[in-house]
Amino acid sequence: MSGTDTFEGRFQISRRQALVAFGLAGVAGVDAVAGTPRAYAEDRGGVPTISGRVVAVGIPGASAIAPVGTFLSGSPINSNPVLAALTQPGRVCDPTRVLVGSRSNFGAPKANPDQAAGSFLSVDPAGADLAVPALFAASGGQASALGGAVQMYSAQSSNWRNGFYTPAAVTADQTAVANPLGMSINNAFGRFWPANAPYGLNGPGSSSIADPDGRPLNNALNPSTGGVYFDDVTGRTPTQVIPGAISKAAVGTALIGRSPDGSGRAVFAVVVADGSVVQEHTVKALDGIAPRRTVQPLVHRSWGQDRGHRGPVPLPRLGVVMSYAPELVLYVSQPFDDSIKVIKLTIGGPQGNEVFLLGGLRTIRSSTLVQPLDLAPVRIETTHPDRASNTTLQPGSDFYVCNRGNDTIVRMRQNGTIVGVRRVRLGRHSLGAARLNGIATSADGSRIWVTYVGALPGHHDDQGGVLELPAF
Length: 472
Known about the structure:
The chain is mainly beta. It has helices at 15-21, 81-85, and strands at 29-30, 37-38, 49-51, 53-57, 65-67, 98-102, 119-123, 130-131, 144-145, 150-155, 180-185, 192-196, 206-208, 228-230, 250-258, 266-272, 277-281, 285-290, 320-323, 328-334, 339-348, 355-365, 372-377, 380-381, 389-393, 399-403, 408-412, 418-425, 435-441, 447-453, 465-470.
């Protein structure tokens, strides 16, 4: 049975019936890496459970999470000794570490008082119960805490303004990170690309290209854009091939690959809170891909206050992953529609200025999708010289769906078929007042990391943090 449009306009079945139909209730799980049976206990609803280990707590609004991964030989990071030094063991961009988004600056002074704070932390996932100090980054640089297990990567603070390296950029006053909601890393031939909501979901958003020092792109080939795309001021000039802008928050992002125009430059897709999708070219700036409401919009949406949750309610966000073979396809979660939008891309436009075009749409629906807010490959593409990224699927790979609504993770094939469902627990206990808020997978496919917000059972911290789970 395929999950593609399975229930839309046809029939509705209960979650328990769906699990039975997919062969998930009352059976053992299968380890996706080793291929060996692994027994999973069931919860009262008959859903197999998976137990998490606490990596870190004290991360307010913990959101997007991404493994740093290894930058391939084609990446300019490897040819720059200063940048390459930051990828060495124990440093902020050590390939074994994970970057975790937060709504806090951890004490770093704001660069722009009218914008929301926010940062990406570099966390050693081998840690256990790391209690992140609230003000450890007050110096305003890439500060370190807990013996280096937690380091500041970038924040909404003056040290990370676009103008540091590109003072003439129209976005010189913008920072690489501000209330981040997404992160895609170009391990193939590039750098780090955060997606931000500096003015909340309803205000203009930003997306950046950041070096390992957390600052927007050094030696930018487009001196007008530098390393930060913002609102409608960084569109392709003199004329966009396809109209588009980050006029609302940037709520998700994924590497597409090298530009089809022959320049060899990176192009990323960014989903905007109004439901549009734009493409960002390292040199030629921003064009559209799909108009508003292509993806279900997040503007004017809110999770509401969860029972037992005392802290600020995090902003809604969504996940984006890319499949490049046999065709170019973006998968985008739609948390308020309990579905996943599938966006096919094609190539067209004026010769020498070819861009990615909208080629088709479909929707994946399943009763196992309950506020799906993030996606991650089961097998990350780590070796392709044009595609390697935490948001890129290896050919034929399944992907994980992180459900906020019931704290489950769904493993799904690209055609929408459900492979497995696991409810996340902490030992024998449910997550209590905590709610899942992001997902990532390790480069070897053996581990899953999830972010959460709210208080875990037995923990006094109600800010948020990171759990590690076995893959399935």
